[in-house]
Every structure is written in structure tokens, then in C-alpha cells.
Amino acid sequence: MFTKKFVLRAAGASLAAFITLAVQPLRAQPSSESKEIEELKREVAELKQEVSDLKKQVTTAPEGRLKKKVTYDGKAYVEKAIVEEQKPPVYVVPAGPEIKLALGGYIQANFEDGDVSAFEGRFGLTALKDRFRLRRARINLTGEFFEQFDFKIEGDFENSDGISSNRTAFSGTDIFINWHQFPWAQIKVGQWKAPFGLEQLTPDPTLFTIERSLPTGAITPERQIGVQLWGQPFASVWPEQKDLLTYYAGIFNGNGRNTTINDNNNFMYVGRLELMPLNGKVFGQNSFLKLGADVLNSRDDKGTNISQTLNLLVNADGSLSPFVLPGADERTAWSVDAWLKLGPFDLIGEYLEEYVNGRTVNGVSPGFANFTTNGYYITAGYFLIPNFKLWFSGRI
User: Fold this and answer.
1) C-alpha–C-alpha distance, residues 295 and 274, integer Å
2) Residue 151 has pLDDT above 70, yes or no
3) Which of 154, 277, 303, 387 could form a disulfide with 140 if both were Cys (CB 3.0 to 4.6 A apart)?
4) What's the pTM?
């Protein structure tokens, strides 16, 4: 094969040379060179036939790529070119004219020194030791398909913190499909953060601190499995002000993440409204003002852990443990929040409150007194340089 290709190139060069030599005499002495012309025509015809034969060989050659193979016939080593069969490529065919797929993830780590988790009453032998902590190590896949759906699949490699016994290995965080054909009425199904609490809904990489405040951890429902209707009513009629109003209304099991069973036949109902009256330039700086309000209602059965960080039970050593319901209850919670951004300056505040009332089921009393838990936080930050923030946070 290699030899024939070389001949083809040489033949082409020879043909060009013959034609060059032939044309000049023909112009000078057209009548005395008839024999030479006939000879040239014959050679050109032979070259054309050889080119045609080479083309047929290339066309009929088996698919694949050539590679050298050395064999030994007992006397000498012989090298020859053979055709290596190639496997057909793998194709991903989109189901619609547009498709998007993105692989992402992030890692967050910190160092803890002193009375780690002292806020939980962990001192002495029960205190957590000084440590380097891999706080989050997540990988996710997001995409769009059929032009009307988007999805996200995310998992966390680092769930064990020595406290939360139900998070000890790689597990799912966000796993959902969202139908977005109508921006003012989208439907979301799967597992994600229930729409309650500004700080809870703020993505981890954009938080000012690596940890959320105690009120957020104690009162917000975090990730749940369910279905949600949400949207932006002005997205179609007033596109330039689509962020002016956003609503969320969801129904969830209420048992937390990665739990497919429900503790009873009741569900958790969660709703949120967001209003953004300011979104534009102030003194030439990107600015916005976002206001939010949330509401939640849930009926839970005995034995349900209503919050991983609602630490109400006092152990014998003085440490605190998450509150597991000794009897059935009905919870109602609400919150209000505000986020003001003026160029490099941010001011964020939120207040949350929850009422946990006992509920008698089949004549069995709840076994605990009604109580109310509440809290707030205020966070201020200022960008000294792009993507570097000096922050101060006051939390109670």
C-alpha cells in the first residue's frame, strides 16, 4: 500500500513533466512531432489507468488504520503493513434539537481548634478533638433534555461528622427533575431543599461562612423528598422584571433526605414567597434588595427526629442531643428574611420561629410539653478585592 502511494505521487509528477515538455515543442513545430505526441498520449493513458487502479484499491481497502507488524520466518525478520480493525465510535444522540450536560462539584475543608462543638454541651471526655475537617466533597451532574426538562444528580462523599449518625457514607443530596416549559408554573419532583429559609436555600459555595447558623439548622427542614410547584409570574408578561416575584409551594414526606418512607399518612407542607423590588445599578454598582417569607406545617409521629441540630435533650454528662419526638406532634413554622446588596457591600438578616405542639393519637398522649423555638442571625460583608470577602457575623 505504501509503495503504490509513492508511485502515484511520482506518476503525477512525471505526467506534469511530460505535458510541460510536450506543449512547448507543439507550439513551435506542430507538424513534425506527431510520433512524439502519440507516444505521450499513450503514456498519459497508462498513467490514468494506473491512477484509476490505485483509487479502486484505496476504496476497496478494509476499514481501519495501518500498523506495522514484524514476523520471523526462521531466516530473517520481515516487516509488513497490516490493517488494524477499528471499533466503531460511541455516539450520544440528543432526543431533542438542544441538549445540555455539565459535570461539576466542589470541596470545602476547615480546621477546628479549641472547644469544638461546645455549643452542643460537649466538654471534657465528650468534646470533639482538634481536627482538620473535610466538610463537603460533592460531585454533581446537571443537564437539560427534551427542551422542557432540567435535572440534577448530586452526591456527597463526606457526610460523617461524628455526630449525625444517619450520615456516615456517600449519599445523595439533590436528586430531581424539573419541568420548566412554563416559567410561571414549573413542577419539580425528587429530593432537594424544601423552600424554607434564606440561609438554608443559599448554595454552599456562596455562603459567607462554611457553616450555617444554629437557628437555620434547628428550624429549617433542609432536604426532603416530594413535589413542588413554583415559578415566576412575571417571566412571560414582563421579562425584564422576571425576578420581581417568585413563589414556591411544596408537599414533602417530612422525614429528611434519602428516606423513602413516610412516618404516617400526613405530609409536610412548605411555601415561600420572594420579592425583589430592587435589581439593577445603584451609583453604578450592581445592587439588589430581596425580601422573603416562609411558612411550614407538618404532623409527625412518635420517634421522628424533627431536626438534626435542634438539641434539646440533656444527657447525663451535660451534653445535648437532637430532639426525637416522644409522641406525635404538629409543627408550624414561619420566617422572614432580607438581603441587601450595594456593590461590594452585603447585609443579610433572617428571623425564624417554630411551634411544636403535642398531638394525641388513638388516645395516646404526646408525652411532652408544647414548646416554641426561635432565633435570628445578621451577617454583613464587604468585598475588599473581587471574590475575596471580609465578613462579620453576629448570631444568636
Assistant:
1) 12
2) yes
3) 154
4) 0.73
Q: Which residue has the higher pLDDT, 360 or 307?
A: 360
pLDDT tens-digit map of 199-225: 999 999 899 888 899 899 999 999 999
Look up the domain containing 22 and give its range: 2-84
Q: For position 116, what pLDDT does the model report? A: 77
Cα-Cα-Cα-Cα dihedral sign, residues 7, 13, 16, 19: negative
Is 109 domain-assigned? no
Q: Give dist(CA 76, CA 72) in Å, integer.
A: 6
One-letter amino acid for residue 366 of the chain: P
- The helix-helix angle for 2-28 and 34-60 (nearest 10°) equals 160
Selected residue with higher pLDDT from 238 and 35: 238
Residue 98 lies in a domain: no
For residues 263 and 324, the answer to whether their CB atoms sit within 8 Å is no
